[in-house]
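User: For a benchmark we're assembling, each entry needs the component sequences followed by a predicted structure for the full assembly. Here are entry 17's components. Please fill in the structure.
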Amino acid sequence: MPVLEVQGLAVFRGERLVFRDIFFTLPPGGAILLRGPNGAGKSSLLRAVAGLTPKAAGKILWDGEDALEDLPTHAVRLAWLGHLDAVKLALTVAEQVSSPAALAALGLAGYAELPAKFLSAGQKRRLALARVAASGAPLWLLDEPTNGLDTASISLLAGIFATHRAGGGMILASTHIELNIPGAEILRL
Amino acid sequence: MKRLILRELRLSLRYASDTAAALLFFVIAATLFPFALGPGPEVLSAIAPGIVWVCALLAALLPLDRLFGADYEDGSLDLLLLSGTTAGGVAFAKTIAHWLTTGFPLLVIAGPLAIMLRMPAAQAPLLLLTLAPGTMLLSLLGTMAGAITLGARRAAVLMPLITLPLMIPVLIFGCAAIASPHPKPALLMLAAMLVLALPLAPLAAGAALRAAVE
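Assistant: Structure for entry 17:
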């Protein structure tokens, strides 16, 4: 089972050092919640781990090997949920997430044939989360997954997180509110 | 990569009016010339290939600012770059989709349009033969310019300023091949430019995409 290790990570945005000396280890089945005020670098940390934002210093290791050396291979290991939903309004729900199980897990089973432009903001967020759940990738990188979700949907999230971790999956998520993830480590930025 | 191209084609089918806009622009722009210059066949037949070339060039520029712009604004670009394809591969898939939805339809309309402009029908195969690599080069260079200007404030203005100078040699050799009694050297030159742009433009576009999502 693979392990994600981050050692001494530092990231610049423009001329500003967002954070430095970030260390953590994410074992299979593990979860880490990123906390901190706006602008603390939660999104930057997630983007750096995904290989989207270049890191200024430090190492990101996957199973002890440099994860970012081969970006396309690294991309297959992870499922990405950014602060934007990346939902195409002209495509139907099923055209964007083809797994009926993932759609059902997020309460979108009845909307499969509906073009995404008729979805509410919370439903679009759930569609983006269903894409993550359908990816089958071991590492989930989630930027504010609860944005725009109602309390019922947030409890749905707890269910898919538990299923993912039970299968050895890892979760790295930034959040402002309490997420119901038992045994999750908290990383303050 | 195939999935990416299919997704692009499906999206351009859903936004059919955007896709058709470039073709309508091509037809309307070329149709204006006989009104301005008069319908006399001597003048028109001499400049018809040039008109078709220039109008095709300008028409193919129209959809370029949405090529990456829409994906950049809704966050899909991050997902494309994390799809397991290299950034250059993503750019190449976009290039193919642009050619299939813009370049190829332009090519289909170009023949009838040129004949409407009194071009001798015997020249039509040569016109299409030059336009085929011409539109492909335009898709390649246009994708590159689209990626480079991504996130810039005036992307729609910058893009033609980057693409059009690069297209000048293509335009020169394309039109020279039609007018000249010996079209082969000019055609080979076009082919050489295509071979050069085919690997380099997607690579440059891929690097620009990576820089844009930073």
